[in-house]
Each structure stands twice: as C-alpha cells, then as structure tokens.
TrEMBL record:
It is a multi-pass membrane protein. The chain crosses the membrane at residues 20-45, 52-77, 83-104, 187-209. Residues 21-209 form the ABC transmembrane type-1 domain. The keyword Cell inner membrane does not apply. Pfam families: BPD_transp_1. The gene is ehuD. It is found in: Cell inner membrane; Cell membrane. InterPro entries: AA_ABC_transptr_permease_3TM, ArtM/GltK/GlnP/TcyL/YhdX-like, Ectoine_EhuD, MetI-like, MetI-like_sf. Belongs to the binding-protein-dependent transport system permease family. HisMQ subfamily. Keywords: Amino-acid transport, Cell membrane, Membrane, Transmembrane, Transmembrane helix, Transport. It comes from the Bacteria. This is Ectoine/hydroxyectoine ABC transporter permease subunit EhuD. Its main location: membrane.
C-alpha cells in the first residue's frame, strides 16, 4: 500500500471500473443515437418555410447550445419534479446529454444541407418530388457523407462529458473511480485507470468513425 502505484490494488478494482465503463458506453451510445436523429429533425425544421417554426427551433437550439450541460441536467433532475415531471437519474442524464448534443449535431447537419448544390433542390422541385423523397432519396445522402467526421467528434466529446452526470448521482466511470478512492483514500490507481479507460475508448470511437468515413467516401 505504500508503493507509488499498487498493481495488486489496481487489479482488484479493475472489474468494478470495467463494469462502470460499459455502463458509460451504453449511456453514450443511446444518447448519441437520440442526438443524431433529433439533431437532423432540428436541422430540417430550421429550414422550414413556416417562419414561426424555423424561428422557434432556432431559438431552442441556440439557447441549449449557449447554456452549460450541467445546468441542463440539474433542471431535468431537480427542477422538473417540482412541476410533476419526474425521471430517474439515468433517464435525466441520458435525455440531458442527448438533447444538448442534438443541438450541436443539428448545426453540423445544417452545414451539410447548405452544402448541397442548389441545382439538386431545384431538380427535385422540377420533378415534383415530395419533401420526404427529396430528403431521403437525394439531399441527405449528399449532405451527411461530408459531415461524418464532425459527427464523430461529437461522439467522442459526448463520451468525455459523461462524468457530468455524476452530479445527479449517475454512477458512471469517473464517479465509480471516485467512490472506490473514497473507500480506501487511495485515488491514484482508480483515477489513473479511469483515465486510461477514457483514452482507450475515445481512441476506439475515433477509429470506428474513421472507418465509417472511409467506407462512405466516393469512389
């Protein structure tokens, strides 16, 4: 116990940290899946010809992007129950981080949509394609391919932001490391292992995104 880094102690706490890391990955993947879908909806609605809809969605996106994630999850977990909306810590954390990053991914999608040549939109209009066929068949395949790297960056960023959920009692990887350290008053090993987990998983996510980018590139 007096050594600088106790390998035996590190091996003992490794299973608990591994379990917490899987829990953290699950939160990240579920939250990111929601953020991808919701972000796309936001981006499309901001292009709506109905001006009140576009302005309202734009205000919501900018408001959420301009306020800290920590405050948002506090509101979801501690404030909403006062008004009768109660969620578990896990649900509030997942919803909070998904909504927060949906606003960032919506801007990425918007950049992709704006990058599609105007002629493509005009051709869809000339062919009398429905909005659904226009987006699914013509616009989105061209808009999403170039923004995959930016979306991948937000996946890694979301994973690294999961420790904020410990503020509402979600026991993710970092919180588990702190809990283990508080039991023995030895923080070096759990915090170091947690950092290594974050590093390895973040690099893995980045590698998978690069593989996806490579598979989607044009011939």
């Amino acid at each position: 116990m007096n050594s600088f880094f106790d390998l035996h102690y590190a091996a003992q706490i490794l299973p608990a940290l591994l379990h917490a890391s899987l829990y953290t990955i699950l939160i990240t993947l579920v939250g990111f899946a929601v953020a991808l879908v919701l972000g796309l909806v936001f981006a499309i609605l901001r292009r709506s010809a109905v001006r009140p809809v576009a302005l309202t969605v734009g205000f919501v996106v900018e408001f959420i992007r301009s306020t800290p994630l920590l405050i948002q999850i506090y509101v979801l977990f501690y404030v909403l129950p006062v008004y009768g909306i109660t969620m578990s810590a896990l649900m509030a954390g997942t919803v909070g981080i998904a909504l927060h990053y949906a606003c960032y991914t919506s801007e990425v999608y918007r950049a992709g949509l704006n990058g599609v040549a105007r002629g493509q939109w005009e051709a869809c209009c000339a062919l009398s394609l429905s909005p659904r066929r226009t987006y699914l068949g013509v616009i989105l395949p061209q808009a999403i391919r170039p923004v995959v790297p930016a979306l991948g960056n937000y996946l890694v960023a979301m994973f690294k932001d999961t420790p904020m959920l410990s503020a509402i009692t979600v026991v993710e990887l970092m919180q588990q490391a702190k809990n283990i350290g508080s039991e023995t008053f030895r923080y070096l090993e759990p915090i170091t292992l947690a950092g290594l987990f974050f590093l390895v998983i973040s690099v893995t996510f980045a590698h998978l995104v690069r593989r996806l980018e490579f598979s989607l590139r044009l011939p």
